[in-house]
Amino acid sequence: MHFAATLEQMTVLETVSEDTLVFLQVHKRIWPTSQRDALFWSHMRKVPNDKDQDGQDIWIVCNHSTDDPDFPANTGKCVRVYLTVCLVCQTFIDPPKDGAKITRENLTCKISYCSVG
């Protein structure tokens, strides 16, 4: 998992819909604590901009712990993490001068993040 350095394993347990999945994540053990896992649903959706069809992309992500009798908490070596996470992400494009091609240098992202655990 190159995008999340703390993840040891991630499994999609269920595809509820095209924008909602149930995950089981096992995180790397950080000494001296016990290893952690998390069982949660994750919902991701693009927010339409009805006022400006050419407006910048806005995405929301909501993650919340859930239970599954097939994956009970705290029965093995892992301690279950319980979480609620909300994330809003907005992309901004700073148009390049002279009509040049848009590159990574022209992109910025505003992120609002809230979590309860």
TrEMBL record:
Residue intervals of the START domain: 1-113
InterPro entries in the record: START-like_dom_sf, START_lipid-bd_dom, START_lipid_transfer
GO MF annotation, one: lipid binding
Name of one Pfam family that matches: START
GO biological process entries: ER to Golgi ceramide transport
One Gene Ontology cellular component: cytoplasm
Protein name: START domain-containing protein
